[in-house]
Design a protein that fits this description.
By secondary structure, the chain is of the alpha+beta class. It has 8 helices and 4 strands. It has one domain. A hairpin with a 2-residue loop joins strand 3 and strand 4.
């Protein structure tokens, strides 16, 4: 899985660009400037990404998962989008960029794959649960910012991934 992520990042890197200042503004209270400036977004309009070999292994173990059901997918610091993203989905993908930064590529890939195998469902992968809880808190727009980096680190420290 790590090799797939690295390859996809390299494929889409040249087409990717940072979000505009206007798009970044709502995220500034939640993310450090480094993540906001270095996470790039690339639109893909010619269909889904081809399924990697490990998807067959998942299927054989009874785990139904397909990349074509996603609105976007993050490969380290490059987010590939398959449609126009609303701010909540952009926020979710930025959380994944923080997770990669904190865990590193190999550990992120290992935890994602193992989480999918253990739970059997995309929605129950701990890395996805963390991103979803944070994007949900962001979408409530309570006016009370929080640190995504601190929350991700807390999950790491508590071995929740």
């Amino acid at each position: 899985m790590a090799a797939f992520i690295k390859t996809q990042r390299e494929i889409f890197l040249s087409q990717a660009a940072p979000l505009s200042e206007a798009q970044l503004e709502p995220f500034k209270p939640y993310f450090n400037e480094g993540i906001l400036k270095t996470t790039l977004f690339a639109g893909k309009t010619d269909g889904p990404i081809a399924s990697p070999d490990f998807m067959e292994e998942l299927s054989q173990k009874g785990v139904a998962f397909s990349l074509d059901r996603l609105k976007a997918i993050t490969f380290l610091d490059v987010v590939v989008t398959f449609e126009e993203l609303d701010p909540r989905v952009q926020f979710h993908e930025l959380v994944h960029a923080v997770q990669y930064q904190k865990l590193g590529l190999k550990q992120f890939a290992n935890k994602y794959f193992r989480g999918l195998l253990r739970s059997g469902r995309y929605e129950k992968i701990p890395l996805e649960v963390n991103a979803h809880l944070l994007d949900e808190a962001f979408s409530k727009n309570t006016g009370q910012p929080f640190s995504v980096e601190a929350d991700v680190q807390k999950w790491i420290n508590e071995n929740r991934f």
